[in-house]
């Protein structure tokens, strides 16, 4: 079985741990071995102190490689912050984005490879070798795409890098628009279209539907390539709130209600074939969403086993839809 997953940061990375467990246990396995290809969001990327930081790629890499700070869901475990303290002593700005010493090593390695002329996909492949992810992690594109947020700052309209809005302002400044700067000129990274072409189905984890999955789908050619496959998604919204993060602030910015139904309708039946909602949203499964089959089950990814159960249901749903489509 060949699965492609479009992943953002923390929620996507946690889901991938469960998916890996589900297919390793054979419950997700088909006649041949199962391969998983992750297409990672790079719209959150930011250059700080001359170093290229790729938060969503790193969160997937560290989470699958067991190097993640599990309390935050981002950055490295067992971190120290000596470099950050020294930068502060020099009066450096942008320390609102906390980078630890171990994390800095990742950004130094990546930036050195990029400066040698390697594309982001090659640098990512090289960095992943150390972490033994059990799957392939591809950036959505090798081209520069940065998510920006147009905010209303006390009546003044300002354009902020996503991370400044998300981290420095905790998404508290009302967002009027969110867009991927450079997305229109970006091309899918090598291997992405091929992986989608060969995939048996695509899974959308409970990542941020706007700034993670939405940004990946904004790369020209990707939405069409994904929509051509059977796609099953896991709702990132349970009840009227995101499980974590601030997807509600992002959804509000694009005029989408924060609900499991509204996100499914936002993705649309041209993209989404199946949708998993939590039991508190069982009415969405009962009344249905036009053109999308909906099932309800517990969706809290409390640990790898719970997440593996969610992944198994998503796989079963996708295989049923693929089978029916034949
Ligand atoms: N999130 C925060 O809320 N505060 C931080 O200081 C912060 C630093 C950081 C450093 C590296 C990294 O890979 C992620 C980091 N994040 C931080 C999380 C980041 O903003 C989010 O993971 C994504 O960009 C959104 O999914």
Average of pLDDT: 95
Helix share bin: 25-40%
Low-confidence stretches: none
CATH topology of the domain at 2-44 and 185-325: Rossmann fold
H and E string: EHEEEHHHHEEEHEHEHHEEEHHEHEH
The tally of strands reads 14
Globally, the shape reads: globular
Spatial strand arrangement across the major sheet = 5-2-1-9-10-13-14
- The top-level CATH class of the domain at 2-44 and 185-325 is Alpha Beta
Task: Report on this structure.
With 326 residues, the chain is an alpha/beta fold. It has a domain at 2-44 and 185-325: Rossmann fold (3-Layer(aba) Sandwich). The protein has helices at residues 10-24, 55-64, 82-89, 101-115, 120-129, 162-168, 192-198, 213-217, 222-227, 247-253, 260-267, 282-287, 304-325; strands at 2-7, 35-40, 46-48, 51-53, 136-139, 146-153, 156-161, 175-181, 201-204, 231-234, 237-238, 241-242, 274-277, 293-296. Helix 1 packs parallel to helix 2 and helix 4 crosses helix 5. The radius of gyration is 19 Å and the shape is globular. Bound molecules: ligand FO1. Residues 8-10, 44, 53, 55-56, 58-59, 74-75, 97-99, 103, 163, 166-167 line the site of ligand FO1. The site of ligand FO1 has 18 residues, from helix 2 and helix 6.
